[in-house]
Structure of Cytochrome P450:
Amino acid sequence: MTNRVFVEEQEDIVKRRSSPNEGLNFHEIKEMKYLSNVINESLRIATAKTIFFREARNTININGYTIPKGWKFLSFSWNYHMDPHTYVRPKEFNPSRWDDLKTKPATFLPFGVGPKMCPGANLARLEVSVILHYFLLNYRVEQVNPESKIEPPRNCLVKFKKI
Ligand code: HEM
């Protein structure tokens, strides 16, 4: 079901073109609602183990804990990407959760935050959108060993088929 929606969105975009020679454009990418949900959900889960290193420039107090000036500390994305208050059943891969989800500050940080935030964030999203557009229209994936677990990945082998 999910896969069908994923593919149909791309097929509909191609059908709406006035000529079959037209290539993918930025306007079409912005219309890819479901694909954008898949990217968000993949980023949420795949980057849940990211760690950000920082140094406190001033002494600060967070929820009763003091971090003295000059201390190094690290923040672990797992705490906010897997928070059930923001993401219902957080371990489930569910792109549709992004349909109505309004994330509050510091609940979705796949690219970090503040002045050290990833400068390639938009480029990365754009590249993945272009690749997935052509992939969904031209290829199918088949799991070779369906008995293996996908999350967490355990010897999960797939075959790519050109259609
Ligand atoms: C899905 C793809 C990507 C992910 C998940 C990602 C994630 C991140 C994260 C978490 C940081 C650290 C942010 C922080 O400390 O607050 C970072 C930094 C950085 N990223 Fe990315 N990134 C991606 C793609 C890219 C691309 C495509 C480029 C360049 C074309 C890029 C260039 C950089 C650079 C230069 C920094 C260092 C920024 C600094 O220290 O000021 N990244 N990225």
